[in-house]
Design goal:
With 276 residues, the protein is mainly alpha-helical. It has eleven helices and two strands. Strands 1-2 form a two-stranded antiparallel sheet.
């Protein structure tokens, strides 16, 4: 997923949004993710979805994303010349990978401009299947992003809430149904689809994240068990949702809770004895 870096089309995006009734001061721009922060990927995908029609209009002039003019022809570099160029650049310092990606279509852009094309960036508009994948990946990333934001917030969360959030996240990542978002604004809607209909790379992402959540956040220790036991809003009965078919974990929680109660009682008794 490469962000839509629209060099000479921001004004078209603004006009497209204004035509839909958006105030100029509230018009949105495309978001470019940071290459080492996955949260930026989620925000970029979300912004792409919300601005899909505006991006298509800015790049192709059509809300459908199908430009009325063809891109200019770009002559291919012979294999021998390409190899010579590669050998000459072996000793040069490698540039940032993001810059390389940005410049990968510079020949096409220059050819379009030279040919007087009205939309020289038309080739950057995603095809229909890529927009679909954009929405699916955003949908799969939504809950992990929200849980990550909650866990890393300024105030943080307690061990009990952390476990509940992780349990909910793991359940969603292993579910056979996935809620996928489409549209934006008043047209935004969520529809459940079968997980197997997702692309293989998105399925693999779900599997990897689910395994990591289970390994990192769902391993109950004594402190977490005690926090769960003392939470007034949780059902911590033996046959409750949390400990159904987990009798050993339930017994461990009860033992830790009783141990802490005895320790607290002994502490209070010793304190009272000192005051006598």
């Amino acid at each position: 997923y490469v962000a839509h870096t629209i060099f000479n089309a921001p004004s078209s995006m603004v006009l497209s949004q204004v035509s839909r009734g958006v105030k100029k001061a509230k018009c949105k721009r495309v978001f470019r993710m940071h290459h080492i922060r996955w949260g930026g990927l989620y925000r970029m995908l979300r912004q792409n979805r919300m601005l899909e029609s505006d991006i298509k209009i800015a790049l192709t002039g059509m809300a459908s994303g199908q430009c009325h003019e063809r891109a200019a022809f770009v002559p291919t570099v012979p294999a021998a010349s390409a190899q010579e160029t590669s050998e000459e650049s072996d000793g040069e310092e490698e540039e940032d990978s993001d810059d390389a990606k940005e410049d990968s279509d510079v020949d096409q852009i220059e050819a379009n401009v030279a040919a007087g094309k009205e939309y020289p960036l038309q080739h950057r508009c995603l095809p229909a299947f890529a927009w679909k994948k954009n929405n699916e990946l955003e949908s799969v990333l939504t809950t992990p992003y929200e849980v990550s934001q909650a866990l890393q917030g300024h105030c943080g969360v307690g061990l009990d809430k952390e476990y509940i959030l992780a349990l909910s996240l793991h359940k969603e990542l292993t579910s056979d149904l996935v809620a996928v978002v489409t549209g934006s604004g008043e047209d935004e809607s969520w529809e459940d689809i079968h997980a197997k209909s997702l692309d293989a790379d998105i399925l693999q992402f779900r599997e990897v994240v689910a395994a990591e959540v289970e390994k990192r956040l769902l391993q109950l220790n004594n402190d977490t068990l005690l926090a769960l036991k003392m939470h007034p809003g949780l059902d911590t009965k033996r046959d409750g949702v949390l400990f159904k078919d987990k009798s050993a974990t339930f017994e461990l929680m009860e033992a830790e809770y009783n141990r802490k109660l005895r320790h607290r009682g002994e502490h209070l008794f010793a304190k009272e004895a000192q005051n006598l």
